[in-house]
Structure formats: structure tokens, C-alpha cells
Amino acid sequence: MSALPEENLVLPAAVLWDLDGTIVDTEPYWIECEFALVAAHGGTWSEDHARALVGMNLPYSGEYIREHAGLDLTGEQVVAALIDGVVERVREHVPFRPGAQDLLAALGDAGVPCALVTMSYRDLADSIVACLPDGSFTTTVCGDEVDRGKPHPEPYLRAAALLGVDPADCVAIEDSPTGVASATAAGVPVLAVEHTVPVLPAPGRHVVKTLEGVTPEDLAGVAAALRD
After folding, report:
1. What does pTM read for this prediction?
2. Using one digit for the tens of pLDDT, what is the confidence trace for 213-223?
3. Beta-ladder partners of 172
4. What is the residue extent of each domain of the chain?
5. If you write DSSP's letter for every residue of 16-49 in order, what string do you get?
6. CATH assignment of 27-92?
7. Under 8 Å between Cβ of 169 and 148
8. What superfamily would CATH give domain 6-25+95-227?
9. Is 172 helix (H, G, I), strand (E, B) or coil?
10. 3-class secondary-structure state, position 139
């Protein structure tokens, strides 16, 4: 992934992970729950609307669904219903993305701390983290614990602060333009794993199709190349 000699690479001070669509393939769960909720309340919904919300913070998504689907619910009620539906599905099956668990384990073996930076709320994040080895994440930042969610930089800035590291010395792993924008605004180099929605190449990011075979040294090379 990098043309730089391995001996010249410095591992990231930390790796800051998005969750939905990056570690786990839960975006289909969210979309399924959106359609089910809207149908149950007599509204209308579309794939275009669903894709527009990939990576967005939940308060925004709740209001967007309420308005565009014509629901007689508050945004908070929409969010609560969606979280309940996704948590129920995750408890039945956690759909891990290819390569994510291996890279998490390799980073742990290399002594690189990881933070989870997700717009999912604590209940959902904890249900997924519980399926990973203890200590996979040094800290977690969830959507119900920030004042301004992605695409604002606050979630990534908070994660770096909790770890006591410079955001520029980290690498973020994201799957959506919204998440990439959040990390980039925080000054974090980004490895974007394109999945549900397209992520176009741009300064400050390196785009791949999968995490399969990606190593901590690859992340170091990506970060070094993006800083040059």
C-alpha cells in the first residue's frame, strides 16, 4: 500500500475507527429499519433518502426521516425506534466487515491504541464491542456523547484528546463521505474503505475497497504519504 521502505515507517500514534460500514456491515440493518419504521407509520421512503443518511449523526437522521417520510413522530422517537431495531438485529448476528477484526488484532499486537468513533449510540456500540476481544478499543466516542456529530470534527478531536495524541499523528478508518469529512476536519489522515456509498479520492485520504490484508505498517505508509 506504500512505496516507502518499511524501516522508515512510524506506526500511527493511534487508529480511530468508525463503526457502521467499517468494522461491521450494519448499514443494511439501518436501512431496513428505516423502511420498516416508515411503512409502519404510513410514510414513504426511498433508497436515495436512505443512502443520503449513511454516516450522518442520529439527531440529524431522525429529523430528516421525520420530515421527508411525513411521520407523525418526533426526531427523538425516530432515533429510538431505529436503535432498538438495529440492536435487535445485531444481537442475532454481528456482520463483521472483511479484514476489520484481523487489523484490530494486529494493531493490538503492535501496541497501537485504537478508539471507536461512531455516531451510533452507546447501547448499539457496546453490543458490538462486546463481541470483540477485551481491550480492542482503548476508548470510545459515541453519537450520544458529543454536542456536534459527524461531519463536524468534534468526535475525532475528542477521541484524540482522550488518548492524549495529536490528531495528525493518527489514522482514521472510515467508509462514508460524512465520516471522512469529520476526520479530515480534525486533521486526521484517512483510510477510506468504500462500501455502501462512493468515497472519491481527495487530499488527506486514501481509498481502498477492503481492509483484507491491510497491516499496521500499511497504515503507517498511508499516513506518511498523505502528510507528504
Report:
1. 0.85
2. 999 999 999 88
3. 16, 190
4. 6-25+95-227, 27-92
5. EE--BTTTB--HHHHHHHHHHHHHHTT----HHH
6. 1.10.150
7. no
8. HAD superfamily/HAD-like (3.40.50.1000)
9. strand
10. strand
